[in-house]
Amino acid sequence: MNSTAANDARSDRQMPPPTGFIDEARAAQLRAANINPRTGLATDYLNHFNEAIMLLEMVPDMPECAEDFLTWTPLSYAEHFWASNFKARDLAIEAYECADPKIRADFDHLTTTMTSILTAVGKAMREAQQDRTRATLAEQATAWVKPLVALAGGVINGSDVDVAAAMSN
Question: How many whole angstroms separate alpha carbon 18 and alpha carbon 15?
Answer without folding.
Answer: 8
